Amino acid sequence: MRNLHSTITRLEAMPARRGFSDGVTDDRLAFLEGFGSNPGALLARTYVPEFLRTGAPLVVVLHGCTQTPGGYNRSAGWSDAADEHGFALLFPEQQRTNNPNLCFSWFSPEDASRGRGEALSIRQMVQAMHDRHGTDTNSVFVTGLSAGGAMTAVMLATYPEVFAGGAIIAGLPYGTARSVPQAFDRMRGHGNVAPDALAEIVRSASGHQGPWPTLSVWHGTSDATVDSSNARAIVDQWRGLHGVPRTPTRTETVDGYPHRVWENAEGSEVIEEYVITGMGHGTPLSTGQGFGETPGPFMLDVGISSSRRIASFWGIDQHGPARVSAQMPFDESEIPRRSQRPLQAMPPGCQGPSLHVQRTIEDALRAAGLMR
């Protein structure tokens, strides 16, 4: 883990950003009221297209830090896709009273465990959507950016029986951080967990015995906020769950970017990874194809629509991938080499620093307004 001075410096720098959010509202989104006990004290917004198909899929979209559901939707074009393909959308929303920077608490055991906190609140929202709109309980999917991507990993790990698939954009693997200092270190690619241990962390989150959700992973090679080594860790975590080898079944170039696919023994695509060369921290967009996508903070026009590609991977794009361009083989040498850092086993219990160090960090967090 990085030294205490470095951690405190980063924490002290955060209040300057506390008041910032994308500030974008979207009157197409409705509030979801009365969805359960809501132990995570989250809000919820929804989008149900006029022509919701019978037994429609449900897509859960988790915004990143400093973002709002309205801002994320306007940039990523999910409601346009829902109109076109007849599926419903659910946007869990973080409150500033929980986190001044509007980040989901993906690293907190109180919120990232089955039956607790924010994870349970989101599960309750999903059930409310089924009850009110008749969405298909076997076709629920979840995606998110950054902290929302890490929270996507939480939902897939803690409620794998709920989700048919997920998509993590610039996120982190489940269960590798259990405190704010650990979260900072994992974001920067420090203290990564050994590949063999990653799948076991997910297995221990729910006791699930059935099939695992499929997964799409997206990350920019120039991401200075969440190190791209986290994408490889996510793939390793889910390779272990699906029992697929390290070598992908297929590699190709899609819209100019490296794309890898892993198939299971039955020939079904269970994991894909997009390596967005040269992109920083954000969601990949393609604003020139009429998908209703608009660039903004952390919403980056790089010529590929992650939203449409993800919907196609999940099979909820009724027209399939033909609209979003052709694919071609690629040479693995085209991918920039990721930084190589030694991996280490997760310390038992992931208890973090000593009591004195932890108290110092918590004092800084309270001063920054990041702890209640």
Report on this structure:
- The protein has one domain: 3-Layer(aba) Sandwich (Rossmann fold), CATH 3.40.50.1820.
- With about 375 residues, it is an alpha/beta fold.
- It is built from 10 helices and 13 strands.
- The chain is globular.
- Helix 1 (about 5-15) runs parallel beside helix 10 (about 355-370) and helix 7 (about 195-205) packs across helix 8.
- Mean pLDDT is about 85; it is low at about 10-20 and about 320-370.
- The strands form 2 sheets. Strands 1-2-4-3-5-6-7-10-9-8-13 form an 11-stranded mixed sheet, sandwiched between helices.
Radius of gyration: 19 Å
| Spatial shape | globular
Number of structural domains: 1
In terms of DSSP E residues, the strand content is 15-25%
Q: Class in CATH?
A: Alpha Beta
Main beta sheet strand tally, sense and closure:
11 strands, mixed
CATH topology: Rossmann fold
Return the CATH architecture. Answer: 3-Layer(aba) Sandwich
| Class computed from helices, strands and strand pairing | alpha/beta
Q: What is the end-to-end distance? A: 24 Å
Mean pLDDT: 85
Low-confidence residue ranges: 11-20, 319-372
